[in-house]
Amino acid sequence: MRKYFFSSALLLLFLQAFQNPVATLHIHLDGIKSARGVIRIYLFKNPDNFPVRKDLAFRKITLSPGKAGDVELKNIPYGTYALSIFQDLNNNGKMDRTWFGMPGEPYAVSGRPVFRFGPPWFSDCSFRIDRPDVYLNLKIKD
Fold this sequence. Notes:
By secondary structure, the chain is an alpha+beta fold. The protein has helices spanning 2-19, 122-125, and strands at 22-30, 38-44, 59-63, 70-77, 79-88, 107-109, 127-129, 133-139. The protein has a single domain (21-139), classed as Immunoglobulin-like. Strands 2, 3, 5, 6 and 7 form a five-stranded antiparallel beta sheet that branches. Strands 4-1-8 form a three-stranded mixed beta sheet, with no helix packed on it. The relative contact order is 0.24.
């Protein structure tokens, strides 16, 4: 009986490892021109939260500009995601805007969004994580 229980538990752990594959997301950032402030990286899984509800991002990272050239996010479950990144020049925790409502700090998003009035759409910025290593190259825009 004990042998059966141990074998069953081992089989269950083995199957679970293959049911929830995870990946490493490799992000290369170009265009960081200033050493001021911090770089804030937000990985979103839920389209309803992107990119405004940063408090509900799937993963959040804050880095100094000097360490933000190449970033790895590990143990990301396979799925569809979108990235929102900005350089928080005054370190106030939010993306400052111009009086036109445009970003007032350097930023980047994944994908190739069409910028309309308002923030980009998740569907325009989304990408798939469906293999062990996914590489994204993003350029910070002023």
